[in-house]
TrEMBL record:
Name this protein carries in UniProt: Translesion DNA synthesis-associated protein ImuA
UniProt xrefs under NCBIfam families: ImuA_translesion
Name of the gene encoding the protein in the UniProt record: imuA
Record-linked InterPro entries: ImuA_translesion, P-loop_NTPase
Length: 318
């Protein structure tokens, strides 16, 4: 007698596989077969996935804005409710331009962005050029790493920001675990920037990427940790030009309609009288008479020590 248990099944690439359950009886009788479908691991628990494919859980994600990067991330986007760790050899290699499409999506929905401990002063002009309103950006700075970590925990715990960018040069694994636990309680996109040397340390982040500049506005992305198969070769992702990126998204101001200028009849008659030949001769004669009896206006403008018109005329120019 041969018995097939329903608890054993062959895991292949197919999502659902039939499993035959029954008893084989010696003789001419055929075994009684009953087909059962095995659900995908993601349907049993969000933390389960097949090692040969990317996780497709029910968790929400935020589109990166790059099709080539979306297909390499579980759920086709940045995870929400979890830490994304970005390892950079130095700041300013294009990490902010990488996140710009996602941050623009969050700000378009009246969301707020928190910058915790950025290495440089945020450029307000560039943020406005990226369609970020200054009222939506909160900049937090601290002198001590402990104060910076405390501020980051309070911001993540508040769940008042759709996106949080945290720069941590020094952080213990326990501090990152607290951030990960706090992130799981909400649905915010949280990116933690750390130096490339932090790759030697363990991290509770659900996604861990290494960023390196590849030249010509191309960013090399290494997938150190993700819910899916390993990828040994880096992803070369072209970024938008730093100058054109802001100009293309600037909203133009509405053009006010130009109203035609109209002149009332009295003003038109006065201008016509002043522009006639007789009025111009009379005006010139009146001006000569006034110049002979009054002081030069330059004397009043330059002060009492300024020379008179007659003295200026007799003074040679050296």
């Amino acid at each position: 007698m041969l018995a097939l248990s329903s608890s054993f099944f062959l895991a292949e690439d197919a999502v659902e596989l039939p499993v035959l359950v029954g008893h084989a009886v010696c003789g001419s009788r055929l075994p009684i077969r009953k087909a059962r479908t095995v659900p995908a691991p993601e349907t049993l628990h969000p933390a389960l996935w097949r090692a040969g494919s990317l996780a497709r859980g029910s968790g929400r994600v935020l589109a990166t804005g790059y099709d080539a990067l979306n297909v390499e991330l579980p759920g086709d986007g940045w995870p929400l409710g979890g830490l994304t760790e970005l390892l950079c050899p130095q700041p300013g290699i294009g990490e902010c331009r990488l996140l710009r499409p996602a941050l623009s999506t969050l700000c378009r929905g009246a969301g707020r962005i928190a910058l915790v401990g950025p290495p440089y002063l945020p450029n307000a002009v560039r943020l406005v050029g990226w369609d970020f309103s200054p009222e939506q950006i909160v900049w937090v700075r601290a002198d001590k790493p402990a104060d910076l970590l405390w501020a980051a925990e309070q911001i993540v715990r508040s769940q008042a920001f759709g996106g949080v960018l945290i720069w941590l040069n020094q952080a213990r694994p326990g501090a990152l675990r607290r951030l990960q636990v706090l992130a799981q309680a909400g649905e915010s996109a949280i990116w933690v920037f750390r130096p490339a040397q932090a790759l030697r340390e363990s991290s509770p982040a659900v996604l861990r990427l290494g960023l390196e500049p590849a030249g010509n506005d191309v960013l090399s992305i290494l997938f150190h940790k993700r819910r899916g198969p390993l990828r040994e070769s880096p992803l070369l992702l072209p970024l938008a030009d730093p100058l054109r990126a802001g100009r293309a998204s600037v909203r133009s101001l509405p053009v006010q309609p130009v109203e035609p200028f109209t002149m009332d009849p009295a003003t038109a008659e006065l201008l016509a009288a002043l522009s006639s030949s007789s009025s111009s001769v009379a005006f010139d004669a009146l001006s000569d008479a006034i110049d002979q009896d009054t002081f030069d206006h330059a004397v009043l403008d330059r002060g009492a020590s300024a020379p008179s018109p007659a003295r200026r005329a007799s003074t040679p120019v050296v």
